[in-house]
Amino acid sequence: MKAVILVGGYGTRLRPLTLTQPKPLVEFANKPMMLHQMEALVAVGVDTVILAVSYRAELLEQQMKQHADQLGTLCQYFFSLDVFQ
Fold first, then answer.
1. What pLDDT does 2 receive?
2. Which residue ranges make up each domain of the chain?
3. Strand pairing of 27-28 and 31-32?
4. What span, in angstroms and rounded, lies between the C-alpha atoms of 71 and 35?
């Protein structure tokens, strides 16, 4: 089963936490917020997580690959162009 998570955006309401990292990597309860979502999806049988990314996509991809490997799931990335530029 596949799931799509929209993780684009600049996270302006979470500044200063998002000045150096994308919003999904901000920690909540000692884990990146994205990891909580991925764990819940894996628990219900999702084997492929599709992330629609934009801001700091390369950092997000780098960090989530490690977590996806640990969870035994595949992460696919779709990069969104910034329409406001």
1. 93
2. 2-79
3. antiparallel
4. 10
Hunting for tokens 């629609």 — which residue is that?
Answer: 52
Domain over 2-79 is classified CATH 3.30.565.10: no
Q: Is the model's pLDDT at 51 over the cut of 90? A: no
Mean pLDDT of 25-47: 91
In the beta sheet, which residues pair with residue 27?
A: 32
pLDDT category at 81 given cuts 50, 70, 90 is low
Looking at residue 62, its pLDDT comes to 83
DSSP state of 80: P
**HSE (CB half, 13 Å, CA atoms) of 58?**
0
